[in-house]
Amino acid sequence: MSNQKQHLLGMRGALSRRADTTLSLLALGIAFLVWFLVTYEYAPEKRLVTGLFLPSPIDIVHGTQNLFRTGEMPGAIWVSMWRIAQAMFYTILVGVPVGVLMGSVPIIDALLRKFVDGFKSVPPTAFIGLIILWFGIEERSKTVFLFLGAIFYMILMTKNAIRNVPESYVTVATDIGASRLQLIRSVLLPGALPQIWDAIIVCSGLMWTYIILAEWVNASSGLGHTISIASRLNRSDEVFAGVIAIAIISASTDWVLRAIRRRFLNW
Amino acid sequence: MDEQKTAVTPFVEIRHVHKAFPIQPNTKPAPVVEDVSILIPHQEEGEFVAFLGPSGCGKSTLLHMISGLLSPDKGEVYALGKQVSGPDPQSVTVQQAYTCFPWLTVLGNVEFGLKTHGVEAVERRKLATEYLHKVGLGDRLDANPRQLSGGMQQRVAIARTLAMRLPIVLMDEPFGALDAQTRADMQETLLHLWQDEKNLVVFVTHDISEALLLANRIIVFSARPARIIYDMLVPFERPRPQSLLYDSQFLQLSQVLIGLLKHSEATTSDNTSTSGN
Q1: Rounded to two decimals, what is the model's pTM?
Q2: Nearest chain B alpha carbon to A167
Q3: Cβ contact (<8 Å) for B89 and A171?
Q4: Which value does ipTM take for this structure?
Q5: What's the CATH architecture for A64-264?
Q6: Which residues contact B62 (CB under 8 A, 6 or more apart)?
């Protein structure tokens, strides 16, 4: 099916690799060209769209340079990455064991399911006020916010990963005489590990979208803060610089995590 | 069976076992095994029994009741004199599906079985290596199971099972998914291995030649619900080479068994057999 070469206008299925790459690069090129043309300064202060409304690629390069020169950008990247790393640590620390238990032990699933399902549907932004009330406006509330944004997805995806471990593995281990603990530790957990890793990838992406919100309110550092300040100062070029930085970091994290998955967790 | 042998605790005793479950989801439970009693007496030199029957007849269900993975609705199963209730530590099954854990190496998979039975690390490695050599995978110890062919994966499963050296080994159509040549190789390996083990092998198959080639005794089951329709002692000497397949007595016995299976399907053909187990 997938090997079959598709007509360019065929439905579903895959294009040839070359056609696929050409078309996607072409689309990107056209978008860039349009962007460049509408924001180009044909004469001083004479352009189709103003820099405030949509900065040109050159504006963004300057904005980025500026943010690096002042030292704002490297510091902000570091702070945001550190916050996400901490939140991810706690998300894994809590989410994986709870998800594994919910997936393996029906009693625990029955007890916790309603809470997890309920909270999953609530956007963490709804809790910003409470989080600040409970955890203050300092560092801790940012981590808690990111944690709350990801933890319920982490739990549910881990639980599903456990449920998806083939029954034949469980049957064999049971037959061989594995205890319940051995079953969880030596069969369900390793069997689910690739999908748990996928959950970590998803949550990492999720946190990079939430980081802006986390750092928008009451933060004094981080990429979200950088963007928030830049937008208050009408520095659209710096807003875009920050957004692009987040996109690049988030995409490269994703790429690295996927590479690890392909190399080491490929069952 | 003579008096002297029944005095020793039998390998397996199945007494009037019944089992029913829904053949398809959301249907009423249908009888799958109906009033089956089997006595497999202890033999010093080991015993090899084949359960032969059409696909989906319930012979695998019966096997799972010996291993304790399923419990009978009615009747009892005894393994070495102890009633089976829950997964039985004295028996282990080689499943039809490839069941090697992909996160462990070939060696790790064989060691896994020994680990659950509390065998020490050094002894574990020694036994696992020994049995992998016996099944012809001595040079693939560190391979990942997914790099192996289906036949090789099944060799790993057999090594994992036999390395535990349990008195009862159950095999649920273990070669069912293999091509003819691989299957013949595997049968030869299994026969060769079993001669040293002195244990009981119960081997489920729907392949008449396989049953005749491997077993001392063949119990023939009807189409679902499984009932015993014939209990045959296989007269061939061991070792049995593959050339036995062309022996005239072998062909005669095959004919008898083919007749039995045909007859059983004809009489109970109201249920079209799906491969439900």
Answers
A1: 0.82
A2: B99
A3: no
A4: 0.82
A5: Orthogonal Bundle (1.10)
A6: B14, B17, B19, B33, B36, B51, B221, B226
